[in-house]
Automatic annotation (TrEMBL):
UniProt protein name: Xylose isomerase
NCBIfam families: PRK05474.1 (NF003998), xylose_isom_A (TIGR02630)
Name of the gene: xylA
Active-site residues, Swiss-Prot/TrEMBL: H106, D109
Family annotation (PANTHER family): PTHR48408, XYLOSE ISOMERASE (PTHR48408:SF1)
Length: 441
């Protein structure tokens, strides 16, 4: 169902349909068939694709060298309430034309922040009521909400980790309102991206105290939301740097350790972004594997970085090799725990046609769908799983199994080493594994 407001913003574009890989229609899916069953679930169920409000409807294409190139027709009103409603109309038109079932937002994406805290609260409540109507009319759901506690100059030294308690308290007030809006809209999850939770210089930073403050801050946020009846997951979105020199949620392993230290591991999971993984000198699949091993694979941000640039370029995903390897981990982990895949990606500054954002999301969805299909074939039809199992077969019986079961001490290992003498090398067959990926792509 396409949901239009008082006007149609994306004129001439109808419902995006699946037409298959032989189609030449640029406004059709080639691989993403939402009803196709793969590994026991439909693609719609596997991915739960969500539109990111901030890039798709708020990103004007500005960069450090010049202003934005996008001229959005929903930004024309000087009345912030009307402008927010126009933006919501455009958003739900786009989401329903794409056929996706979810969206996600920061509070200030929905409506412009006001000059006072009280007026900002009133504005957010107004647009929340309007979004309820849009959701009811479309069936589109809120995957997650969050608060922008990083753009306003008050947060230049962080929010939960700010050395000024009054700034921390202001962040708490803002996040309360964002949690309230998320609950009111039936949001399934709530995300914390610590956009400035870190340091620019250790010279003026008490790291231990800031980490303690962040742990306490997340605790009170969780407790408040649970007291309001929120049953969903809380997500941490790791990022190593930019805007800070070092961020406290550097990568999945760091964030998981932090959550365990402060007793938050039962309520929080990871929201992993591809571009953040590569900025941390990891791969996307490494971050997924790390979170899955800890039982914290919550949600994913679908994008990619430019490997020649050292910052977060948020380009739409198109790397089938990378995404296939990630989908192998994804399938073996049993998929996501509560979240979905949101397109935290923006069209390029020189992409200025209204259709460009459709091309971008179609390509991103098709990349994930093609990778899922490929990964499923690799798991079910190739020697991939057999080779992996054989590589660890020495732990499946005998002394290796006893070690895994905790039945061998160090002296026992010493005795086995004495008896074995020198060992024969066992190949990891990396090139064969790589060839299997290429064969099935």
């Amino acid at each position: 169902m396409i949901v239009l407001g008082n006007k149609e913003y994306y004129k001439g574009i109808g419902q995006i349909q699946f037409e298959g890989k032989e189609s030449d229609n640029p406004l059709a899916f080639k691989y993403y068939n939402p009803d196709q069953v793969v590994a026991g679930k439909t693609m719609r169920e596997h991915f739960r694709f969500a539109i990111a409000y901030w890039h798709t409807f708020c990103g004007h294409g500005g960069d450090p060298f010049g202003p934005g190139t996008q001229q959005f027709p929903w930004d024309l009103s000087n009345d912030p309430i009307q402008a927010a409603k126009d933006k919501a109309d455009a958003a739900f038109e786009f989401i329903t034309k794409m056929g996706f079932g979810h969206y996600c937002f920061h509070d200030n994406d929905l409506i412009q922040e006001a000059a006072t805290f009280g007026e900002s609260e009133s504005r957010l409540a107004t647009i929340t009521d309007y979004l309820k109507e849009k959701q009811a009319a479309s069936g589109v759901k809120l995957l997650w909400g969050t608060a922008n506690c990083f753009s306003n100059p008050r947060y230049m030294n962080g929010a939960a980790t700010n050395p000024d308690f009054n700034v921390l308290a202001r962040a708490g007030g803002q996040i309360k309102l964002a949690i309230d809006a998320t609950i009111a809209l039936g949001g399934e999850n709530y995300v914390f991206w610590g956009g400035r939770e870190g340091y620019m210089s250790l010279l003026n930073t008490d790291m231990g105290r800031e980490l303690d403050h962040m742990g306490q801050f997340l605790t009170v946020c969780r407790d408040y939301a649970r007291a309001q009846g929120f049953k969903g997951n809380f997500f941490i979105e790791p990022k190593p740097m930019e805007p800070m020199k070092h961020q406290y949620d550097f990568d999945s392993a760091t964030a998981i350790g932090f959550l365990r230290q402060y007793g938050l591991e039962n309520d929080f999971k990871m929201n992993i972004e591809v571009n953040h993984a590569t900025l941390a000198q990891h791969t996307f699949q490494h971050e997924i594997e790390t979170a899955a091993k800890a039982g914290m694979l919550g949600s994913l941000d679908a994008n990619r970085g430019d490997y020649q640039n050292g910052w977060d370029t948020d380009q739409f995903p198109n790397n089938i090799q990378e995404t296939t390897e990630a989908m192998l981990v994804f399938l073996k982990a049993g998929g996501l725990q509560g979240g979905g895949i949101n397109f935290d990606a923006k069209i390029r500054r020189n992409s200025t046609d209204m259709a460009d954002v459709f091309h971008a999301h179609i390509g991103g969805a098709d990349t994930f769908a093609r990778a899922l299909l490929t990964a499923d074939k690799i798991i079910t039809s190739s020697s991939y799983e057999k080779l992996r199992t054989e590589r660890y077969s020495s732990f499946d019986s005998g002394k290796g199994k006893e070690f895994e079961e905790g039945k061998l001490d160090l002296k026992a290992l010493y005795s086995i080493a004495q008896d074995n003498g020198e060992l024969t090398l066992q190949s990891g067959k990396q090139e064969l594994f790589e060839n299997i990926i290429n064969q099935y792509i």
